[in-house]
UniProtKB/TrEMBL annotation:
Lineage of origin: Bacteria, Bacillati, Actinomycetota, Actinomycetes, Kitasatosporales
Membrane in keyword set: yes
UniProt keywords, alphabetically: Membrane, Transmembrane, Transmembrane helix
Region feature Disordered, mapped onto this chain: 424-444
Origin species: Streptomyces pacificus
Protein name, as recorded: DUF2254 domain-containing protein
InterPro entries the UniProt entry points to: DUF2254_membrane
Keyword Endoplasmic reticulum tagged: no
Compositionally biased tracts (Gly residues): 435-444
Length: 444
């Protein structure tokens, strides 16, 4: 519509803006890509080399920084070779990280690892230094040596080595499951905070029992299918207000929507064009954390379950991950969670209704599989009981406590089925925040 208006005013064809879904997909690709930033490093290195050659005659360098043509060629050639070797070294580390993550952690974690800024900075510095040194090498002549450029190339090598040490330090420490759990929890809390800000603005409110309004109903099918990665709530609400209708998103973020399945239900006599609606919803091959805090919880549970598998048999890691799961649940428990949420316009008229996840959904996701796979390991039921007891004592809204008590009863049943001996059963029913060794007490 804006493009048509601009064309009428100027008489020229104005390209239509990219749909929100396409922009979302491009942003996700750019953030997760490992080649875009290094490519920019190559381009920047070449440009800086040209600038260094141009400045070489204007800037007078000290005598000890002057080089003969043979010395400059040897130095720059060594730098070019070293940068190629260091790039191979970083790629090797990346392969090891992939093997570690897919073997003992969760493959879903890889989406966060791809986005590490330090890793991209290291790659960009290496490629930039390579490009800079190679360009300097080409500019050396019998009667001209870019002394300033050779010196800057040496400084770039020093910066590259420092970044490499920082890179090694981070990934040596961050490959531990507990460090990855902390990283995933922070990402999930950022998404929760963004949703809380939208709710605090007054535009978004819960609607546990939505009623379909009267009037014509139009169903908009999903054009391609895929995992629902996100949507533009304000734009969808503005679109519904423009056409004076109510738009209902039929799937929550994180669902896989098959091709042809109903994606929207539009209540109103003049529904928006289907392409405008579907252009405000991003579909992809897998879930993302950007608008889906449940996916962060899913990754945490996967790490704990993988640690409890017979191949790994590391219940202490599961207990450490439960620490972060408990903190995440405390954050979620203080929110106004609902099965549906409604976005209203400035007049208070409902314009967009989207499905959400209730407290029960998050709680079941957090503890069910860990309870089922870990009930036979004494640490896990003790830590789970401490987690659930802590939720009961945390002052959460009363409506959340029934689900917590239900999970406690399921934990009791799982322990009784796994521990027929009364003494071992009593030990497994004891709450302990450290799993074993954190102190015992009477059962709550």
């Amino acid at each position: 519509m804006e493009a048509r208006t601009a064309r009428r005013k100027t008489g020229r064809r104005v390209p239509a803006p990219l749909p929100w879904a396409r922009v979302f997909a491009l942003r996700q690709y750019a953030i997760a890509s490992l080649w875009i930033v290094p490519l920019l490093g190559i381009v920047l290195g070449s440009l800086l080399a040209e600038a260094a050659v141009a400045l070489d005659g204007a800037v007078r360098v000290p005598q000890q920084w002057r080089y003969s043509p043979s010395t400059a060629s040897s130095v720059l050639s060594s730098i070019v070779g070293a940068m190629v070797a260091l790039l191979g070294f970083v790629v090797t580390i990346g392969i090891l990280v992939v093997q570690q993550a897919t073997g003992t952690l969760s493959p879903r974690y890889m989406r966060l690892w791809y986005r590490d800024r330090l890793q991209k900075a290291v790659l960009a510095t290496f490629t930039g230094t390579f490009s800079f040194a190679f360009s300097m090498l080409r500019s050396i002549e019998a009667d001209f040596v870019p002394d300033l450029g050779v010196t800057l190339a040496g400084a770039a090598v020093a910066v590259s080595l420092v970044l490499l040490l920082m890179y090694l330090n981070r990934f040596i420490h961050n490959l531990r499951p507990v460090a990855i759990a902390a990283l995933v929890t922070r990402a999930g809390r950022r998404v929760v905070h963004q949703g809380a800000l939208l709710a605090a603005s007054g535009a978004l409110g819960p609607s546990d029992a939505p009623r379909a309004p009267e009037g014509p109903l139009t169903r908009v099918p999903c054009p391609t299918g895929g995992a629902l990665q996100g949507f533009a709530p304000q734009r969808l609400a503005a679109l519904a207000e423009r056409y004076d209708c109510l738009v209902v998103l039929t799937h929550p973020v994180g669902d896989f929507v098959p091709p042809g399945a109903t994606l929207f239900e539009v209540h109103g006599a003049t529904p928006p064009p289907p392409r405008e609606l579907t252009g405000l919803v991003a579909l992809g091959v897998e879930r993302t954390i950007e608008q889906d805090p449940a996916f962060a919880l899913r990754i945490l549970v996967d790490i704990a379950v993988r640690a409890l598998s017979p191949a790994v048999n590391d219940p202490t890691t599961a207990v450490q991950v439960l620490n972060h799961i408990e903190g995440f649940l405390h954050t979620l428990g203080r929110l106004e969670l609902s099965g549906h949420h409604t976005l209203r316009d400035v007049g208070g008229v409902p314009r967009l209704r989207v499905p959400g996840r209730s407290w029960e959904d998050f709680l079941q996701l957090a503890v069910t599989e860990i309870r089922e796979y870990g009930a036979g390991s004494l640490q896990v039921p003790r830590r789970l009981r401490a987690l659930l007891d802590g939720l009961l004592a945390a002052g959460l809204p009363r409506r959340h406590l029934g689900a917590v008590r239900t999970e406690l009863r399921l934990l009791d049943a799982a322990v009784e089925a796994r521990y027929p001996d009364p003494a071992r059963r009593a030990s497994a029913l004891t709450a302990d925040r450290q799993g074993i060794g954190g102190g015992t007490g009477a059962r709550a």
